[in-house]
Specification:
- The structure holds two protein chains of two kinds.
- In chain A, the strands form two sheets. In chain A, strands 2, 4, 5, 6, 9, 10 and 11 form a seven-stranded mixed beta sheet that branches. A four-stranded antiparallel beta sheet of chain A has the order 1-3-8-7, with no helix packed on it.
- Chain A is 0% helix and 50% strand.
- By secondary structure, chain A is mainly β.
- Chain A is globular.
- In chain B, 33% of the residues are buried.
- Chain B is globular, with a radius of gyration of 14 Å.
- Chain B is mainly beta.
- The chains are: A mainly beta, B mainly beta.
- The interface between A and B is medium-sized, with 26 and 31 residues.
Chain lengths: 114, 114
């Protein structure tokens, strides 16, 4: 039973470029959340997708957008990259948006902006 | 415990000792609390959770205590092993719109010396 898988594992971009990160949720899960984790910090919530729609959003600018596909996989897009976007981007999946459903995390995509 | 300054709080213990990691949460309306373990190069891994109507929950070698009066959460690890070395995050879940979105603390680094 595959867990949450993310691709790519590492990525290097330059300022102003655009990037797309991908996530496949754990089998049986239908909800995907994305987080940004800066070095030495806890994960910060970006947004959550359920039923192919963005249901909740954290305090991130519109440069951050996403998509969920019918098979529940998801993409995170970041436009006009800034140096401060360098971080580990984590995807987490769960079964629906209920309270007591722990999220399962992937190992993340390490994004470096030069 | 919760972070101050730029450096991650660190707890160093000897193998076989019991470890206690503390966390102060911010929202008295939070309904659900989770502890995650994050090893280097990996995503956060679920350890144990507790609902706000409980004050203690035990798992295998781990116990979570919740004190809602002072908004304090702790994770106790019995007979700590070198494999327990990691960064530990507490997260609180609060209902936001139709979803329960977790808010993570900065984390505590646990170092277990053999």
């Amino acid at each position: 039973d595959a867990g949450v898988t993310q691709s790519p594992t590492h990525l290097i971009k330059t300022r102003g470029q655009q990037v797309t990160l991908r996530c496949s949720p754990k089998s049986g899960h239908d909800t995907v959340s994305w987080y940004q984790q800066a070095l030495g910090q806890g994960p910060q919530f970006i947004f959550q997708y359920y039923e192919e729609e963005e249901r909740q959003r954290g305090n991130f600018p519109d440069r951050f957008s996403g998509h969920q596909f019918p098979n529940y996989s998801s993409e995170l897009n970041v436009n006009a990259l800034l140096l401060g976007d360098s971080a580990l981007y984590l995807c987490a999946s769960s079964l629906n948006r209920a309270l007591n459903q722990p999220q399962h995390f992937g190992d993340g995509t390490r994004l470096s902006i030069l | 415990g919760e972070s101050v300054g730029l450096h991650l709080p660190t707890l160093s213990v000897q193998e076989g000792d019991n470890s206690i990691i503390n966390c102060a949460y911010s929202n008295s309306a939070s309904d659900y609390f989770i502890w995650y373990k994050q090893e280097s190069g990996k995503g956060p891994q679920f350890i144990i959770d507790i609902r706000s109507n409980m004050d203690k929950r035990q798992g295998q070698r781990v116990t979570v205590l919740l004190n809602k009066t002072v908004k304090h959460l702790s994770l106790q690890i019995a007979a700590t092993q070198p494999g327990d070395s990691a960064v530990y995050f507490c997260a609180e879940k609060t209902r936001t719109g139709g979803s329960y979105i977790p808010t993570f603390g900065r984390g505590t680094s646990l170092i277990v010396h053999p």
